[in-house]
């Protein structure tokens, strides 16, 4: 671990932003590895996520009443709400030194908006197979792109997101085929005996605003923040072609501070499958 113990790392705080249906808990093993490498970190719970996330009323009851039709209790969560949660954390940690903002998957939208609004609070932003809105303003714009056609997981969504006000999944499903698709999409390289632990911690509702709200970034604010993209080489939720499209379009739109790109082995969820390798990539 000695090569990582330098002044840059010791004076750096990593602010970690989770993706859809996850929460600050997803980063626990990565944070422990970061501590071992001499780096401090804090993980954010976006509104509508984490262990305090409100659930559909029948979600934990026999019969799962209303799961396909009941409007989500997080339907009114906005992109501004999510960015504000990140900004609050950035302001709190800024006094400790260098700040690296790390976003996973759908968390790239709120993290980008936070960096656009307060670029002086962020010294580098890292996208871990995450949405970059510099080329196209909505996450949905990339999810529907031809480069994302091989993505798995479309059959996991329940009901009509416009009616529900959320993109809803069912981590507590008893359907073996559904659970296998969930595993193959997000956790195919996570040890099989740990998959149930991960899915039980997921919340069912992603506020619709997160993938659907347009985000406008500018070259004089977001575009001046140094940025890194950590590609996931065997990502089945956001294939490498879609990741590369976001990188290329962002660099074309804002060439002044192009992405530094690194590739990690494995799935969309390296924090579950190989957290130490992820921590080492972050401190490098």
Keywords for this entry:
AB_hydrolase_1, 6-stranded parallel sheet, Rossmann fold, hydrolase, alpha/beta, AB_hydrolase_fold, 12 helices
Write up what this structure looks like.
- It holds the Pfam family Abhydrolase_6.
- Residues 14-281 form the AB hydrolase-1 domain.
- This is Alpha/beta fold hydrolase.
- GO terms for molecular function: hydrolase activity.
- Keywords: Hydrolase.
- With 284 residues, the chain is an alpha/beta fold.
- It has a single domain (2-58, 77-148, 209-283), classed as 3-Layer(aba) Sandwich (Rossmann fold), CATH 3.40.50.
- It contains twelve helices and eight strands.
- It has helices at 7-10, 28-36, 79-93, 108-117, 139-143, 161-164, 176-186, 192-201, 209-212, 240-253, 270-273, 275-283, and strands spanning 12-17, 40-44, 98-104, 124-128, 166-168, 205-207, 227-232, 260-264.
- A six-stranded parallel beta sheet has the order 2-1-3-4-7-8, sandwiched between helices.
- Helix 4 links the parallel strand 3 (98-104) and strand 4.
Secondary-structure blueprint:
Blueprint: H1 7-10, E1 12-17, H2 28-36, E2 40-44, H3 79-93, E3 98-104, H4 108-117, E4 124-128, H5 139-143, H6 161-164, E5 166-168, H7 176-186, H8 192-201, E6 205-207, H9 209-212, E7 227-232, H10 240-253, E8 260-264, H11 270-273, H12 275-283
Parallel strand pairs: 1-2, 1-3, 3-4, 4-7, 7-8
Antiparallel strand pairs: 5-6
């Amino acid at each position: 671990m000695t090569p990582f113990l330098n002044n840059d790392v010791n004076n750096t705080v990593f602010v970690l932003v989770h993706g859809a249906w996850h929460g600050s808990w997803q980063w626990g093993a990565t944070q422990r590895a970061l501590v071992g490498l001499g780096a401090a970190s804090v993980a954010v719970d976006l509104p509508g996520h984490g262990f305090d996330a409100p659930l559909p009323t029948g979600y934990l009851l026999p019969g799962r009443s209303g799961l396909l039709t009941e409007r989500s209790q997080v339907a009114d969560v906005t992109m501004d709400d999510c960015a504000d949660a990140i900004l609050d954390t950035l302001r709190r940690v800024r006094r400790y030194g260098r700040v690296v903002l790390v976003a996973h998957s759908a968390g790239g939208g709120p993290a980008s908006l936070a960096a656009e609004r307060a670029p002086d609070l962020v010294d580098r932003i890292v996208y871990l197979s995450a949405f970059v809105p510099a080329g196209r303003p909505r996450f949905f714009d990339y999810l529907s792109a031809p480069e994302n056609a091989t993505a798995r997981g479309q059959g996991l969504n329940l009901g009509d997101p416009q009616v529900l006000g959320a993109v809803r999944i069912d981590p507590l499903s008893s359907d073996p085929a559904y659970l296998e698709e969930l595993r193959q999409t997000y956790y195919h390289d996570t040890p099989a005996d740990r998959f149930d632990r991960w899915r039980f911690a997921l919340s069912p509702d992603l506020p619709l605003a997160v993938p659907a709200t347009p985000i406008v970034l500018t070259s004089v604010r977001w575009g001046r923040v140094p940025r890194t993209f950590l590609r996931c080489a065997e990502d089945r939720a956001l294939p490498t072609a879609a990741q590369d499209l976001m990188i290329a379009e962002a660099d074309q739109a804002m060439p002044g501070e192009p992405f530094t790109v690194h590739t990690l082995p494995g799935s969309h969820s390296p924090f579950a499958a190989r957290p130490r390798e992820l921590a080492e990539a972050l401190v490098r």
